[in-house]
Amino acid sequence: MNSKIAIYEWGKLEDRNPVHFLVKNTDLVVIRYDDNVSVLYGRCDHRGALLGDGYIDGHNLICGVHKWDYRYDTGISEYNPAEHLYKFKTSLDGGQVWVDEAEIDDYEKEQLVAVNREDYLGAYESTHPAPEEPNAATIQYLSKHGLSKLGHHGPVDAMGVGGHLLPKWDDIQVLPAQLARLPHLEDVTVGTDIVIGKNAKKPLILEIPLFVSDMSFGALSEEAKVALSRGAEKAGTGICSGEGGMLPEEQAENSRYFYELASAKFGFKMELLKKVQAFHFKGGQGAKTGTGGHLPGHKNKGKISEVRGIPEG
User: Fold this and answer.
1) What does 11-29 look like in DSSP terms, one character per residue?
2) How much is the pLDDT for 271?
3) Residue 217 burial class via C-beta count within 10 angstroms: exposed 0-12, middle 13-18, buried 19 and up
4) What is the pLDDT confidence band of residue 1, given thresholds at 50, 70 and 90?
5) Is domain 4-110 in CATH 2.102.10.10, yes or no?
6) Tens-place pLDDT, residues 97-112
7) CATH 2.102.10.10 boundaries in the chain
8) What is the per-residue pLDDT for 159?
9) pLDDT, tens digit, for every residue of 43-68?
10) Per residue in 167-199, pLDDT tens?
11) Which residue has the higher pLDDT, 81 or 127?
């Protein structure tokens, strides 16, 4: 190595615990195993997730987003050896882990997919967009700029229909539904609220005809549940608990709380109903009539177990 960069103190590296480190604009993941160290390119080949947020399972480094595997000693995927992470040269000297600066420079010129770290959530940008998530970039763009760069009507595109497919003057059509109710002009205030349980003693009123659907605590983190609940409250709408029980911190953030009651009755207590504005009854999930989702036993621990009201494991 002609010019070296120290990236981590050897004594602070925990065995088989991946750690993220940034050198110039290259994300690295550093893994100590026994008396060896492996420094790999630190983003997954699929969504670009930071592998320093992943974990070790056996001989593999596992991506925390969708569980893709890479051998931590070579960077090669056991599932598909055609996919691999670049492995950088390393040396141990003076109690430090070093990498070759020239190799980093060459990698950035030839292979690196750059991210804009100064941008909103730039460090977590998806470097390899996939057809399964066609709207991810649009959602991130709106999160950064709102409608300030699109106009208050949102994105507008030409329909792109070929002229030969459109009606001709020889095919005049009269669409009476367009005339049945004259539309308002765009500056006229209209109601967007919707009432759930019109005949109930305490109907639930949502200010918009949308609400946040069910995802249990455990499937989503506490931070995500609380953030969604708070956002729904600010939008004037409700959020569903999910069948994993009522997370108190989530419920406290929303005054239009839907409690999902499924066959397992996770966390169900009559005294909790005083905090509930509506029920969401679940009769099945997909092809599983009469049953709900399944949570792996190893995830049912700590607060997740408490909210569900069942023993850990």
Assistant:
1) GGPPBT--EEEEETTEEEE
2) 86
3) buried
4) low
5) yes
6) 999 999 999 998 988 7
7) 4-110
8) 65
9) 998 888 899 999 999 999 999 988 99
10) 777 777 677 777 788 888 889 998 999 999 999
11) 81
Q: Rounded to whole angstroms, how far apart are CA atoms 233 and 256?
A: 8
The C-alpha atoms of residue 256 and residue 238 are separated, in whole angstroms, by 4
DSSP sequence for the chain: --SEEEEEEGGGPPBT--EEEEETTEEEEEEEETTEEEEEESB-TTT--BGGGSEEETTEEE-TTT--EEETTT-B-SS-TT-B--EE-EEEETTEEEEEHHHHHHHHHHT-----TTSTTGGG--SS--TTSTTHHHHHHHHHHTTTTT-TT---------GGGSPPGGG----THHHHSPPPPTTS-----EEE-TTSSS-EEESSS--B----BTTB-HHHHHHHHHHHHHTT--EE--TT---HHHHTT-SSEEEEE-TT-TT--GGGGGG-SEEEE--EETTEET------GGG--THHHHHHTS---
Beta-strand relationship, 55-57 and 90-93: unpaired
Residues 89/99, Cβ–Cβ less than 8 Å:
yes
